[in-house]
Amino acid sequence: MRPILPLASLLLLLFPACSPDQVEHLSNTKELALEAPNWEVKRIMPKDLLRATAWAGDSLTRTAERELRQVLADKLAAGGVAAALPFCRPTQLPRTDSLAKTLQATLSRVSSRPRNPANQAQLTAAELNPADTARQVARPSQEVFTYQRPLVLNDQLCLRCHGEVGQDIAAADYALIKQQYPQDQATGYQLGQVMGAWRVSLSRSGAAELWTMKTRKIMKPRKPLF
Questions:
Q1: Domain range holding 119?
Q2: According to the UniProt entry, where is the signal peptide (predicted)?
Q3: Domain tally, the chain
Q4: What does the alpha-carbon distance between residue 152 and residue 190 come to, in Å, rounded to a whole number?
Q5: Is residue 196 part of a domain?
């Protein structure tokens, strides 16, 4: 039988393998400690998902308004109402569509006086409130969250297609509008009036992912000293 080495001898044999000059120490332990909470499993409560829905709705509708305003300004300057009319579909604009897919959301624009009959809808009392803070979020089912807020005419450019006929809208332009939208009802508006409402439908997974990303502590990169 082979003799068994004493424990002390075994430790002496292993000690050189653990000498300080051979151990690689982490230089970013502080950053790792700050980053660690980002990977902890956290329970997301229903109120958190509703708050994420409000964030998603605000982001998506504001993006749609900004992109639509820029596109219409460019098209009106280039070719008037004839050039702008085909692009007054914010849900189909590139940046808006891309963001909707990222958020796993569906954006729609509805009105009780629509230009396109497909957008006809009865508005709620909240959607008729022109205040910028008038928005509602809800959870109609386990997997679906909804967001809605008023769509207010707050840009002078919009009057060229939605203002008073003969005053803001030239007769030739209105004839073109009626040619494309025979059932048009979306004229006669003034600045500050509610034209309709934005409505967003968001999946539960989209709300949960947005909440996770928005509440994640992301470290800012350090600036070099020299």
A1: 46-215
A2: 1-19
A3: 1
A4: 10
A5: yes
Residue 215: closest CA among 205, 204, 223, 207 = 207
Report yes or no on 96 lying in a domain: yes
What does the block give as tokens for 196?
């309709």
Answer whether residue 87 is part of any domain.
yes
Long-range Cβ contacts of 39-44 (<8 Å, 24+ apart): 42/212, 44/208, 44/211, 44/212
| pTM of structure | 0.76
Question: What stretch of H or E contains 209?
Answer: helix 204-215
Residue-wise pLDDT tens for the chain (226 aa)?
Answer: 455 555 555 545 555 555 555 545 555 555 555 555 554 546 789 999 999 999 999 999 999 999 999 999 999 999 999 999 999 999 999 999 999 999 999 999 999 999 999 999 999 888 888 886 789 999 999 999 999 999 999 999 999 999 999 999 999 999 999 999 999 999 999 999 999 999 999 999 999 999 998 887 654 555 554 4
